[in-house]
Design brief:
This protein has 119 residues and is of the alpha+beta class. It is 39% helix and 30% strand.
Length: 119
């Protein structure tokens, strides 16, 4: 039973960056990411490496690997046991690109501002 609600971040224009990213992946990698999303919904912050890792300032990454291909999906936790999935990328280097972390932080800021505005 899912204890955490997994929500894809939606931009003002209706784009859903993480979902769009997952849709570009091959079936095996996409299936692996959806399995990880199920795991995060069941385990929340208890999910650790090799599946999940805190990378910076409350931003975490889900880690998927199929053969030599590596994908990452970034997310953060929000009140009421929500997990907000922000964006994803194919990993090509040792370090998670700062641009992807910055994007996740920007989306988090937008999400929180929108949530506070709607309350």
């Amino acid at each position: 039973m899912a204890k955490y609600q997994v929500i894809f971040f939606e931009k003002e224009n209706g784009d859903i960056p993480a979902e769009e990213f997952i849709n570009t992946l091959d079936n095996k990698m996409a299936a692996k990411i959806y399995r990880l999303l199920t795991m995060i919904s069941e385990n929340g912050p208890e999910l650790r490496e090799p599946y999940s890792k805190h990378i910076d300032d409350g931003i975490f990454e889900l880690r998927a690997k199929v053969g030599s291909d590596i994908s990452r999906v970034l997310y953060f936790f929000f009140i009421e046991q929500r997990v907000i999935i922000t964006n994803g990328f194919v990993k090509k280097s040792q370090k998670t690109p700062k641009s992807e972390i910055d994007k996740a932080k920007k989306f988090r800021k937008e999400y929180i501002e929108r949530e506070n505005f709607n309350q």
